[in-house]
TrEMBL record:
Name the UniProt record assigns to this protein: Altered inheritance of mitochondria protein 9, mitochondrial
The keyword Transmembrane belongs to this UniProt entry's keyword annotation: no
Lineage: Eukaryota, Fungi, Dikarya, Ascomycota, Pezizomycotina
SUPFAM superfamilies from the UniProt entry: Protein kinase-like (PK-like) (SSF56112)
PANTHER family assigned: ALTERED INHERITANCE OF MITOCHONDRIA PROTEIN 9, MITOCHONDRIAL (PTHR36091)
Organism: Pseudovirgaria hyperparasitica
Domain Aminoglycoside phosphotransferase stretches: 128-390
InterPro entries linked: Aminoglycoside_PTrfase, Kinase-like_dom_sf, Mito_inheritance_9
């Protein structure tokens, strides 16, 4: 899940956002290096130069769904792309061993009048393998099998189906009918699965660019007229929805009604399912919810931060700002005191009401009528939906509502996208008041919550900076009781500031490099571009290193001074 920065940050909040937040400003040595490479026409796989105009044209060069359909392809292995970081592990995590013939037989059995499957296509996103089957009686059926990175075994599938059934029972949001599902990987197919009807209509992604702005505006309003029903629902706890009779959550669930219960949150941040991000429970018990109140939810964030810390500091080389296991543990304990105090504030309480919302509201997950694209025919992909504080959802901006720079003038926004962004904001304000309330809160009241669970991924310096800034502006933020965080000494603060500049440089590089190489933020590349992108990657590293080493007299506060510094912050596997 992405969590963009809020638009209401006060003037003193000028700190660089973390990896999940908005991109850094285009300043400093790294930006100059990458800009130089882009302007010097570093070639991409199709031979097109990456001039600066193309380089700054869009923040999303490739869809996060990464889905390409293929017919008759390998049903078991991931074939849709590769990664510049942990490529082998990423692809292995998306291998699914199952009985493909048994799956085909189940699809035929679920389509009355069908005798066989005449064709199928495979589509792969980051978390699921999807097969679209065409039967001999003209039926289209979708079968989805989750990858191990999608979330915890069984829980993820059970919760998605329960969430869909709940939404279908409580709202008029159109979601394709589920024909059959299983959360037991030992079934005859050999994998968890969901088999459902194909969404009617066409993907909004296919229609969006050809729609005039008035239809785009009507479409956004129609989407939120549906989703307002979801946002208006009331919940008394945080977690994920499950069927009430699910046996393996019996000891953990909070009753909701006769059919549904709130159980552990199945989001990947709470589980050992992300590639290269193991969880450890030698110092803390698993804390995955459900959480009856905000204080308990905050405990879950801190406990999951602790669960990322390995038993001993035996990790490979990391930047100097990363910090030892002991540093992280101490920082998380201090952070727990701060979050506990802040969670009692009435403003934060109002911004944290429990809300369930679509986890990936983008054009590819919305289907519209082929004849009238302002009519919403389906909203799909509810995997990993959870009941979260409203502020966790509030500033998610779908791709169809993101302002796009004008190609003729980088300082201006393309008019159609600007109009859609304004309508989207108005829809949030008037049709989703719980989210609107969360959007209005001072962003600096929420930043410590966003960083707390991921210190081991980001480095201790990021969360430390949030705690320092919170303590410095504690009175400004409206708190009357003393801040429980003690500011570092002047010498400690000076060292922290140097470390934070290196952290800023890494975040800047993580933003700029994928755009230069035309990849996803995690380094995902379509397979046909692999060799060319690898070559461009090597050229980028060599070019940026040359720029760094060519700086004869770097400023005193320049964080990158040599090859070791650059290697420490390079976001992808170093080219060989």
């Amino acid at each position: 899940m992405h969590h963009p920065v809020f638009s209401k940050a006060p003037s003193f909040v000028t700190r660089l956002p973390c990896t999940q937040h908005a991109p850094p400003a285009r300043t400093g040595t790294l930006f100059h290096c990458v800009y130089t490479l882009a302007s010097s026409r570093l070639s991409t796989s199709n031979g097109c130069p990456l001039t600066h105009a193309r380089f700054f044209s869009s923040g999303r060069m490739i869809s996060s769904h990464r889905d390409g359909a293929t017919t008759g392809s390998d049903p078991f292995h991931y074939t849709s792309g590769r990664w510049l970081h942990r490529d082998t592990l990423e692809r292995e995590a998306r291998t699914v061993r199952f009985d493909f013939d048994a799956l085909r037989s189940r699809v035929v059995a679920l389509c009355p009048g069908a005798n066989s499957i005449i064709s199928y296509s495979k589509k792969e996103g980051g978390f699921n393998r999807v097969f679209i089957f065409h039967t001999d009686n003209a039926k289209r059926v979708v079968a989805r099998l989750p990858f191990s990175v999608a979330g915890p075994q069984s829980l993820t599938t059970n919760s998605e189906v329960a969430t869909i059934k709940f939404i279908q029972a409580k709202t008029s949001i159109p979601i394709p009918k589920i024909l059959e599902w299983s959360d037991d990987p030992s079934n005859t197919i050999g994998s968890e699965y969901i088999i459902m009807e194909h969404a009617p209509g066409v993907s909004l992604h296919e229609k969006w660019q050809s729609m005039d702005v008035s239809d785009q505006i009507k479409c956004i309003r129609a989407i939120f007229e549906k989703l307002r029903e979801l946002v208006d629902l009331d919940f008394q706890a945080y977690g994920s929805l499950y069927f009430a009779d699910t046996p393996y959550i019996a000891a953990q669930k909070l009753p909701f009604d006769q059919e549904f219960a709130i159980g552990p949150h199945c989001g990947a941040i709470y589980w050992d399912c992300n590639v290269g991000q193991p969880r450890y429970f030698h110092d803390v018990h698993p804390n995955r919810g459900p959480w009856p109140n905000l204080a308990a939810y905050c405990n879950g964030l801190i406990d999951n931060g602790i669960a990322r810390l390995p038993p001993a500091d035996l990790s490979p080389r990391r930047p100097r700002y990363h910090g030892s296991v002991q540093t992280h543990r101490r920082l998380l304990e201090q952070g727990h005191s701060v979050l506990s105090k802040m969670a009692m504030d009435s403003r934060i309480q109002k911004a944290a009401v429990p809300v369930i919302f679509h986890p990936d509201l983008h054009a590819r997950n919305i289907f519209v009528s082929a004849e009238d694209p302002t009519t919403i025919s389906a909203i799909i992909d509810w995997q990993s939906s959870g009941i979260q504080p409203a502020f966790w959802h509030a500033d998610e901006i779908p791709d169809f509502a993101q302002p796009i720079p004008d190609h003729q003038n980088e300082d201006r926004t393309e008019p159609k996208s600007e109009a859609c962004a304004k309508v989207f904001n108005a829809c949030i304000q008037f049709l989703a008041p719980k989210l609107a309330t969360a959007r209005l809160i001072d962003e600096s009241l929420l930043r410590p919550f966003r960083y707390s669970y991921r210190t081991w991924a980001d480095g201790a310096v990021a969360f430390h900076e949030e705690l320092i800034q919170t303590a410095l502006h504690w009175d400004e933020l409206g708190f009357t009781e003393p801040c429980p965080f003690t500011l570092p000494s002047p010498d400690e603060l000076a060292r922290h500031q140097q470390d934070y500049k290196l952290f800023e440089a890494k975040q800047q590089l993580k933003h700029l490099l994928p755009r230069l190489l035309n990849t996803e933020s995690d380094g995902w590349i379509p397979p046909e571009q692999w060799e060319a992108t690898q070559s461009a990657h090597r050229e980028a590293f060599a070019g940026i290193l040359q720029e760094v080493l060519a700086t004869q007299q770097p400023d005193d506060d320049e964080p990158i001074r040599n090859e070791d510094d650059l290697r420490d912050i390079w976001p992808f596997d170093l080219p060989v």
